[in-house]
Amino acid sequence: MAATTAQPMGSLPSGLEICTTAPDIFYLPEMVFGGLVWILVASTHVDPPNPLGWVMFVSVFCFVMTFLWMIIFVAGGHKNSSGWAAADFAYHGLAAFFYLSAGVDLAYITMLKKYGVLRIYQIDIAAVVFAFVATLLYFIHTILSAIRWKNF
């Protein structure tokens, strides 16, 4: 049976507790899969630039913001207020929406490239899969953050 960390009602985790509590345990997987989208899209020919520019913006923005958000929680800068619980819900909801739109754009562009160079096409397929995995992770984090905010 797995041990769980009991959080008192109305408190947000800080320090290494974020590695053991839901939804905060999703920070690292979100960064890993978001970083993979960033790397894979950057390693291919960016054509057309507009939709893939959006994908790059989303992956870089969410990677940096999730890292900063995680650092704030680790450092205890949130001060256990309900405003941080609401902001956590809002940020992860926005990130899930951004990644969903970026994943759809990337899938569409990948479908248009399917008769091109096979290696680049496979990289684009991997980026699409990782974009939708990142979307799922951010969505789960959003749902769990909403539950935590409601119980705050």
TrEMBL record:
Q: Please tell me where this protein is predominantly located.
A: membrane
Question: Which BP terms in the Gene Ontology apply to this protein?
Answer: myelination
- Gene Ontology molecular functions: structural constituent of myelin sheath
Top-rank lineage group of the source organism:
Eukaryota
Listed InterPro entries: MAL, Marvel, MARVEL-CKLF_proteins
Q: Where is the signal peptide?
A: none
Keywords, A to Z, come to:
Membrane, Transmembrane, Transmembrane helix
As for membrane topology, the entry says:
Multi-pass membrane protein
Matching entries from Pfam families are given as: MARVEL
An example of a Gene Ontology cellular component annotation for this protein is: membrane
Key word Transcription regulation present in the record? no
The subcellular localization recorded is: Membrane
Q: What is this protein called?
A: Myelin and lymphocyte protein T-lymphocyte maturation-associated protein
What is the scientific name of the source organism? Larimichthys crocea (Large yellow croaker)
